[in-house]
Amino acid sequence: MAVRLFDTRSRKKREFVTLEEGKVGLYACGITPYSPSHIGHARQAISFDIIVRWLRKRDFEVNYITNFTDVDDKIISAANKEGVDFLEISNRYIDDYFESMDALNVIRADAYPRVTETIPEIIEMVESLIEKGNAYVAEDGVYFEIDTSPDKYGQLTGQTLEMVRSGAGGRVDKTGSGKRDHRDFALWKMAKPGEPSWESPWGEGRPGWHIECSAMSLKHLGERFDIHGGGSDLIFPHHEAEIFQSECCLGHDPVVQYWIHNGMVNVDGEKMSKSLGNFWTISEALENVDPLVLRYSLINAPYRQPVDFNQVMIDDSEVHHHRLVTSYGEGLSKKGSTDWRGIQWLEEATGRFESGMDDDFNTRVALVEVQSVAKRMRVLLDSERDSEEIAGAVRWISDYAGSVLGLLPEDSELLSKIQSQEIAKDEISQHVETLLLERDEARESKDWARADEIRDELTGMGVIVEDGPNGATWRIE
RNA sequence: GCACGAGUGGCAGAGCAGCUAUGCAAUGGACUGCAGAUCCAUGGACCCGGGUGCAAAUCCCGGCUCGUGCUCCA
């Protein structure tokens, strides 16, 4: 079964064929570290994390690269505000990023190149573009000249030069004064006093925003590579600029075989933004939400769809995730885990899960399968039989919900938690049993007031009493 | 204005030509003094108008509404 993915450039799902048999070069645009990472970053990282996990599951050898734009206007202004070096700012928020991503169970990329470590390659690329006549040197910087390659315009957005010309009409950018045309974009910005800068043939300065990704992807993945991705807000102009730069510089197209973009995170139906006051950093969100629940909620829709982050959605995810994990834990501690192959209903679930994931990484479909396997396992667990099927289901959940979707805590962690709960239970067991006995007597004599009083007392101790057909059972919450 | 995407049951959200999506909620039942948990069952949907198909949430055309992009942004 082949993997299909939605390519932004051709605007349709295409069968995934790699340049080199069995190998995938994947570049995803990372963050500009000037403030704490937010939920949108989480979604981007998790989306690509799962794509990488799935391609590896499908036996591809994946080289996954994601970058840090560790020098730019916002970083510089944050540094000036605090009176510190710009690298102090970027390093701080890169640390924050890794901390958040580790919590969200995002597997590290194979490399995290930074702009400040790629300056020579960037300069080389800009030089080459000037030589080829695609770029020109102006007072305040070096610019890419769109008109040298008008046919490349709108490859990802479906717009043409004329559309943008008319659309942008009133608000032509006046800041890039050296530009010949407002649609040209900066490859190199000459340094203003006090700004971090590097020497170049055109004077002290720093790279423009777009060129870094062209240079870094070239450096790490070569002149052609399979997948380039990022958030959908980067499609224009960032990724279109990259197409101009890379293809003009290297002299062939396409450089990137497939462009993929994850959807944005909205909050209560509106775009998350600082000005609207509905902005969530990851660490803020994690104060109230378990990281794996957050992860669950963000893959509960296919990666290209927008996701609406709101209380209902979090509550739902909490219920679903909690049930998945507790079922898994119960199965694991009671029946262990064994190979599931050959168990028909699990084979069928596998088929649906895999074809969902093969179809543009549809995690929503995959999640439905996970939940239905968990549910069936719970039923089996209740019926106290079919150990082999339960153990198979445990392994299945571990393989798919765990390894592929990254939704489960470590087995050891889970088991020790269950164990410590058992111990806690043992400690108060006698006391609880005594009270329950008393309550049974009260119930026997239909003294409901006394019975409820005892139940309330137990609730106060964190003990949940549940009356069943064979008398009362209890557990610790 | 232009571009891209979306409009599905009370809610969230899949499916994208034929077969129960699913979960939460609701209702009925099992169990129940009550509550809770669990299980079983049930109802209920495809924005509007045309078109193409034996067959359309699913494809095509035209509307309407919403979101996003066109400036830095995952």
Structure in words:
This protein has 477 residues and is α/β, with parallel strands linked by helices. It folds into three domains: 4-8 and 17-164 and 173-267, HUPs (Rossmann fold); 310-409, Anticodon-binding domain of a subclass of class I aminoacyl-tRNA synthetases (Four Helix Bundle (Hemerythrin (Met), subunit A), Up-down Bundle); 420-476, no CATH class. Helix content is 49%, strand content 16%. It has helices at residues 39-57, 73-82, 86-103, 119-131, 161-167, 211-221, 235-250, 282-288, 291-298, 311-335, 344-358, 363-383, 387-404, 411-444, 448-460, and strands at 4-7, 12-15, 23-31, 61-68, 135-138, 141-144, 185-190, 205-207, 225-231, 256-262, 265-267, 270-271, 307-309, 463-468, 471-476. A four-stranded parallel β-sheet has the order 4-3-9-10, sandwiched between helices. Strands 5-6-7-8 form a four-stranded antiparallel β-sheet. Helix 12 packs antiparallel against helix 13. The longest helix is centred in the last third of the chain and has 34 residues, at 411-444. It is elongated and about 95 Å long. Residues 167-176 have low confidence and may be disordered. It binds one RNA strand of 74 nucleotides through strand 3, helix 1, helix 5, helix 7 and strand 12.
